[in-house]
Amino acid sequence: MKSISVTIFMLLLVLVACAPAATTTAPTTAPAANTSAPGATSAPAATTAPAANVELNFFYPVAVPGPITQIIDGYVADFKKANPSITVKPVLAGSYQDTLTKIQTSIQGGGNPPDVAVLLSTDLYPLVDADAVIPLDDFIKQSGGDAYLKDFHPAFMLNSQSQGKTYGIPFQRSTPVLYYNKDLFKEAGLDPEKPPKTWQEMADYAVKLTKKDASGNVTQWGLEIPSDGFPYWLFQAFAISNGQNVVSDDPSKVFFNTPTTVEGLQYVLDLSKKVKAMPEGVILWANVPNDFSGGKTAMAYHTTGSLTNILSQAKFNVGVGYLPGNKKPGGAPTGGGNLYIFKKVSPEKQQAAWKFIQFLTTPERAAQWSIDTGYVATRKSAYDTLLMKDFVAKHPQYGVARDQLQYAERELSTHNSPQIQQIFGNGIQAAITGKKTPQQALDDAQKEAERVLVQFKP
Fold first, then answer.
1. Is the predicted pLDDT of residue 407 greater than 90, yes or no?
2. Per-residue pLDDT for 212 more than 80?
3. What sign results for the dihedral spanned by CA atoms 14, 20, 22, 24?
């Protein structure tokens, strides 16, 4: 099995490169990063650095709007001050898919490979199958062992470990949340402090929030749920909250066509075709934050990583709520990226990369990263810092995704994850565009996924 892993990994990377882009690059007009927020900490004291100077290539993606490059550049500069013998060269590699493709190219000899990188947490199995990254357990032992790991939210660790080993450290992690326009809620006679909690409530609210002009044309939608970029991810919420996730801790098995999943897909279709409170057809991931901030939709599903940008753009009171549930509450999948260290680099670089990972994930830095971007602070202790306590007290929207983690489950991650995610996403889109019924679309996706995963069966 191992002999074909690298070949499969390379083929998957090519496939991912051809997949629809999830996002666009952050706009240059985005507001400046909040690096001077009250209570922000200075860079931690320098730790024992390698004897010789070490240079690290750090690849990272941009997956949400905002000044991410400026923020990362600032963090790298702070790290250099604390660790003078380590130079980190940040490489903005585009989207998550672009980053994975650039790593493929570098592995094949087409450029400088990364020493450390942010990649999707769901890239775990393909990276491990390809023997491309190292387990981090020895480094973790140096940094507090179980006590260190237990400070990370347990839901985020579900996509960070395999067979008792830890390969990824949660960094820019997220869940989908429900954004809603409190002003429009009040205008429609809805309580602006009570977002919908159930599928039925969400459909009812969406109808009340949809507006039409005298000619019957919709001027304001009640709800938008993106169905490109990461269609499998947002749809997972409907499977989870209806009773069964589409994936388990067995990376060779998926559950795409269970009755509860089919029912969830039918509900999504009904929001547009039957309830007529959401646009028909594929809704673009990149457009939804702007549609919401611009008042074109009253409610929207999107990543919490868009929170800071949405708050800076919206001219109304922004509400954030758990994802509505059906049989289970708040059934959000986790999402976002982990930090990985690559295998074919020197021990000195691996040690330096670990220092950089520790720096990026200190409680203070995790708190600042959450404030700057909207991503969830991945460490529990980050929310105990004075910086985060004060910020969440003033901006309670930043506490919603953290609190929703109690109901969160693992994101779709399997062997050949990118291909399996694309198969599932294609099935969802086939139903949304009317090419197949929900049952047919998910039956076909299940069969195709099983065909791919059969080679990994024990």
1. yes
2. yes
3. positive
The pair of three-digit structure tokens given for residue 339, joined into one six-digit string: 């930090």
pLDDT at 315 over 90: yes
Q: Which single residue is written with the structure tokens 């830890």?
A: 166
Residue 210: count other Cβ atoms within 10 Å of its Cβ: 20
Q: Are 277 and 200 in contact (CB under 8 A)?
A: no
Asked whether 82 and 45 are in contact (CB, 8 A), the reply is: yes
| C-alpha distance across the termini of the chain, in Å | 10
d(C-alpha 140, C-alpha 86), whole Å: 20
Q: Which residue has the tokens 């279709």?
A: 269
Radius of gyration of the chain (CA): 22
Q: Which amino acid is at 397?
A: Q
CB 297 within 8 A of CB 222: yes
CA-nearest of 321, 374, 278 to 180 is: 321
pLDDT in tens, 410-429: 999 999 999 999 999 999 99
* pLDDT confidence of residue 20: 37
The C-alpha atoms of residue 242 and residue 221 are separated, in whole angstroms, by: 25
Give the pLDDT mean for 145-150. Answer: 94
Instruction: Return the exposure string of 282-315: e unless at least 16 CB atoms fall within 10 Å of the residue's CB, then b.
Output: bbebebbbebbbeebbbbbbbbbbbbbbbbebbe
Alpha helices in 19-85 (DSSP H): 68-82
How far does Cα 46 stand from its chain's mean position?
31
Residue 40: per-residue pLDDT: 36
Q: Are 321 and 237 in contact (CB under 8 A)?
A: no
Contact 158, 248 (CB under 8 A): no
Q: How confident is the model at residue 35 (pLDDT cuts 50, 70, 90)?
A: very low
